[in-house]
């Protein structure tokens, strides 16, 4: 699937916004086993905070499951002699969770404030569709869900006040699964019409 291009673009967008050199930022593949992985890397030493973890919901929503012209005969990208390339697409929705772990609430509160302003003011997310070297640019919009949750009471905490965890939910509801197949070009030789 092509969801990974959205994962990478969103992670890079978040990394561009974070200026703290001490901040650890984990992508969707790294966040799955966050505490196990960090514990293994650090030889069972405590996690180093602050830390941001981006995770994607395991379910993806296919917005339209019906066959349409866009799914099999989409946009034509151009010809290269014998072949043409098509850009076929199926609309999907992808949901993400952005967890901010800090030692103190005030620090998490600052990160959340900055992320809210950035996602509201700069929601554009650009991906490059690499299939068959097409390298087509596509823009989507990252939508910020209205609830921000303080999850500081999660079971991973050994004692109260050990760290703060704030969660921001994000949605991309104008994402697409893309396919860029080649199509044979047909040529007609000189044809004469007699009338």
Question: Would you give an account of this structure?
Answer:
There is one protein chain. The chain has 195 residues and is of the alpha+beta class. The protein has a single domain (3-70, 94-125, 135-171), classed as STM4215-like (2-Layer Sandwich). It contains five helices and ten strands. It has helices spanning 3-17, 28-31, 34-41, 69-72, 105-121; strands spanning 24-26, 51-56, 61-62, 75-80, 83-102, 124-129, 136-141, 143-150, 164-179, 182-184. Strands 1, 2, 3, 4, 5, 8, 9 and 10 form an eight-stranded mixed beta sheet that branches. A two-stranded antiparallel sheet has the order 6-7. Strand 6 and strand 7 form a beta hairpin. The longest helix is centred in the middle third of the chain and has 17 residues, at 105-121. The radius of gyration is 22 Å and the shape is elongated. The termini are far apart. The mean pLDDT is 81.
Strand and helix map with partners:
Layout: H1 3-17, E1 24-26, H2 28-31, H3 34-41, E2 51-56, E3 61-62, H4 69-72, E4 75-80, E5 83-102, H5 105-121, E6 124-129, E7 136-141, E8 143-150, E9 164-179, E10 182-184
Parallel strand pairs: 1-2
Antiparallel strand pairs: 2-5, 3-5, 4-5, 5-9, 5-10, 6-7, 8-9
Per CATH, the superfamily is Phage tail protein-like
Strand count, sense and barrel status of the largest sheet are: 8 strands, mixed
- Provide the structure class: alpha+beta
What's the architecture, going by CATH?
2-Layer Sandwich
Low-confidence stretches are none
Mean residue pLDDT: 81
Determine Rg (CA atoms, Å): 22 Å
Please tell me what the overall shape is: elongated
State the CATH topology. STM4215-like
| SS field, number of helical segments | 5
Provide the succession of SSEs.
Answer: HEHHEEHEEHEEEEE
